[in-house]
Amino acid sequence: MQALTIPPCRLDASCESLRAEVRDFLAEAMRDIPEQVRARNWSGSDPAFSRKLGERGWIGMRWPKRYGGHERDALARYVVLEELLAAGAPVNFHWVADRQSGPLLLRLASEATKLDILPRVARGELRFCIGMSEPDSGSDLASVRCRATQTADGWRVNGTKIWTSGARDADYMIALLRTDGAPGDRHTGLSQFLIDLRTPGIEIRPIRNLLGHEDFNEVHFADTALPRDALLGERGGGWNQVSAELALERSGPERFLSSIQLLLEMIDAADPANPRHTDYIGRAVADIATLRQMSLGIAGMLARGESPALLAAIVKDQGALFEQRIVQHAHDLFGERLQAPGTPLADVMAYLIQASPSFSLRGGTREILRGIIAKGLELR
After folding, report:
1. Residues 6+ apart with CB under 8 A from 283
2. How far is CA 210 from the centre of its chain?
3. Which residues partner with 172 through β-bridges?
4. What CATH number is given for 130-237 in this structure?
C-alpha cells in the first residue's frame, strides 16, 4: 500500500502581516453583513465586492504582473482565502476564475488571450464557470459526449453540460469536450476549450435547487462556432489537464470552511457548563485544525510544482464530511432553540440544513473521490 505524507507547511511573518491587513479590511467591508448572508460563504456573489478585492491585489495574486497579477506566492494567496472564507465574504463572482480557470489560461492559452482576459479577471470584472458534468453521466467525467469537431475556421460544438454552477451569469466557460473517438474511449480524445458564453448557438437553462436558487444550469450547444485558439493545450490532452485542475479545486480551505458560520454561532450559543457542548466544540475545533494543516500542506506542495491529486481528494472527502456533520450536531445540541427563527443560530441553520447536502456533490461526489483514493492506495 502506498504511504501518504503531507509535508508540514508553515506561514512566515509576511503572511501573518497580510492576514492582519485582510482582517482589517473585512471588519469594515463586512460590518453590516448579517450572519445568514455570511453563511453562504463562497457561494455568495457580489461583483462590487470582487472589484474591491481586485483593487487591493487579492485576485490573481500569483500571476505575472504582465497579465494583471501581483507575483505573490501561493501561501500569501492561501492566507487571503482563509480570511475571506472565515468571514463569509461574497467571493463567488470571481472564485472559479481565480482558483482554477485563470491558472489554466496562464499555462495553456495563447498570448493574445492571456493579455485580453487575465487582467480583467484580476480586476474582479469577469466570471467563469466550468463545463464538466453531462446529462445521464452521473459523476463519470470520462464519459464526456459533448463534442467539438474541427472545421476550416476553428471548431463546432454540439451537446449539453449540466449542473454548471454560475453559468447563467458567467462570461466564459472552460469546457471539457470530446474531440476524438467515442464516449467508450474514456480518457483519450478529450480536450479543453475556452468558450465565450455570448457566442451564438448557446442556450443556458437554470436549474432550481433545494433552496429555490438557480445557481446550477444546463448549457446546450447547437452548432456553436469557436475560433481555432479556443483549444487549450494539446488536442487529446484534456484528461491530464483537468486532473491537475481538480487538485486545485479539491484541496483549498473552502473544502472545510463552508459551514464555519454555523460553528461560530454554536460557539456563541454554547453553555460552558454543559459537557455535551464543550465536548463537541473541542472535537470540532480539533477537526478543523487537522483539515487546515492538511490543506495548507497541499498548498505548499502545489507551490513547489507537485501534483498531489490523491491527497487533494482526501481533503475534499473528509472536509465535506466535517461540514455536513456540523449541521447534524447543531440539531442534536440546540434542537429546541433552532425552532425560533430570527436568531443568528436559527437563521444560519435554516440555510445550511438545505445547502449542506450539496457539499458532497460539488467538486466530485463522495463515491468518485473514494474510488480515486482506493486506486491511489492500490486497494483496487
Report:
1. none
2. 20
3. 128, 196
4. 2.40.110.10
Count CB-CB contacts under 10 A for residue 231: 24
Summarised one tens digit per residue, pLDDT across range 47-88 is 999 999 999 999 999 999 999 999 999 899 999 999 999 999
CATH of region 13-126, choose from 3.40.50.300, 1.10.540.10, 1.10.287.130, 1.20.120.530: 1.10.540.10
Q: Is the Cβ–Cβ distance between 349 and 340 less than 8 Å?
A: no
Q: 3-class SS at 94? A: helix
Q: Give the confidence band of 340 by pLDDT, cuts at 50, 70, 90.
A: confident
Question: pLDDT of 241-272, one tens digit each?
Answer: 987 777 777 888 999 999 999 999 999 999 99
Q: Where in the chain is the domain with CATH 2.40.110.10?
A: 130-237
Alpha-carbon dihedral angle through residues 82, 86, 89, 93, given to the nearest 10 degrees:
50
Nearest to 168 by CA among 134, 194, 133, 129: 129
Q: 51 with 113: CB under 8 angstroms?
A: no
Sign of CA dihedral 190, 192, 198, 200: negative
Residue 214, amino acid: E
